Amino acid sequence: MSAVREQLPEGRYGRSADERADRTLRITGAVLGVLFLGLLSWFAWYYVADNKISAEMIKFDVVSDTEVQVHLEIRKDTGAKGVCTLRSRSEDGAEVGRKDVRVEEAADRIDRVWSVRTTARATSAELVGCTTR
């Protein structure tokens, strides 16, 4: 009566190919995870720290066939200067008016109404975005 082994003696033939592949996958996953977190952190820093002007459109009012009034609230660093772009569209979605609003006041919060001239009757207005200069 002899006993038959089903497995190789442990440590006699080195590591199996599956163990090496698992280790390689773990290292690759860790490196990719660190790179992803670094990229995510960079985007968050860019958005929070470098965005010195932010604005919100409170409301808009279509005054006539050639004018829309847009009420904006702009928050910014004191002394920062920039430009906010407003756009108005007609019922079919075509752009009928655009205006770049200069933000040069020293205050850190600006609450004003701007007029946008249009080429046809507008049905909507939107804040495209703000950038620093």
Global shape: elongated
Evaluate the radius of gyration.
30 Å
Q: What is the H-and-E element order?
A: HEEEEEE
Strand content: 35-45%
Mean pLDDT: 87
Helix content: 10-25%
Unreliable spans are none
SS field, number of helical segments: 1
Strand order of the largest sheet: 1-2-5
Helix- and strand-based class?
alpha+beta
Q: How can the largest sheet be summarized?
A: 3 strands, antiparallel
Count the beta strands.
6
Distance between the termini: 90 Å
Characterization of the model:
With 133 residues, this protein is an alpha+beta fold. The chain is built from 1 helix and 6 strands; from the N terminus they run H-E-E-E-E-E-E. It has one helix spanning 17-49, and strands at residues 53-64, 67-76, 82-89, 95-103, 109-117, 124-132. The strands form 2 sheets. A 3-stranded antiparallel sheet has the order 1-2-5, with no helix packed on it. A 3-stranded antiparallel sheet has the order 4-3-6, with no helix packed on it. A hairpin with a 5-residue loop joins strand 3 and strand 4 (95-103). The termini are far apart. The mean pLDDT is 87.
Brief account:
The protein has one helix and six strands; from the N terminus they run αββββββ. A hairpin with a 5-residue loop joins β3 and β4.
Key attributes of the depicted protein:
25% helix, three-stranded antiparallel β-sheet, alpha+beta
